[in-house]
């Protein structure tokens, strides 16, 4: 009996919904990638925990999928279990006057709107960033002089042993595009935000200003994974790429955006290999000409 047949029996026993051979390109903003061997859609924290526990017990790789906005999936797919945080993991609630508790699958956009509706300021920078609040916490997402580390004070998670756990602020180990969760195997279930009371008109104005800036400067009309490279110390990735004359550089269906050179876009038929080749080409040229190494911000899964 192969490992997926074993998991099918276990998930059926625990009434955990699953599918086989699911095309992941339909679940990512890059619109690229092969199939997941199995996708699981747990509808409770306990089923989420059980899914991870059974994957670990049966030596099956797993990956938690939020909104798929910072993800590049192999053309050959993913030989493992993709755990999809569906509708049951999107609850947002006010706790106290200025704190918000979010389930990890909630979109950043919905959390930002919730904060605005309750006259809470501090999260405006994140409005327009695609993805889930869990994914944003995982990588300490940020923009326009704000980062998730500025507003998160606690996260709840499931460990690699399938147990529930909590990290408070001092344990979250936030740094640039990094947290204690990055590459740890621990999976965030809930995110706690500390915001501040503010003027709703000023909050809305700031949100709209940043959203308009994104629409003007970023290639939102094309599939992409957002900003492709981390900012190197002492420089900006997009400026270095442009300085090297790489704006518009194309390999297959992948292109360095002519609108914002920090974005690699799928012009319609890009493969994962096209994107990887273009990333490596950009890294090589920028390093040779400027001495800066560009680290990739996008997470890759699969072979």
UniProtKB/TrEMBL annotation:
Its EC number is 1.3.1.98. It is an enzyme of class 1 (oxidoreductase). It catalyses: UDP-N-acetyl-alpha-D-muramate + NADP(+) = UDP-N-acetyl-3-O-(1-carboxyvinyl)-alpha-D-glucosamine + NADPH + H(+). GO terms for molecular function: UDP-N-acetylmuramate dehydrogenase activity. It is found in: Cytoplasm. The keyword Magnesium does not apply. Belongs to the MurB family. Cell wall formation. This is UDP-N-acetylenolpyruvoylglucosamine reductase. The gene is murB.
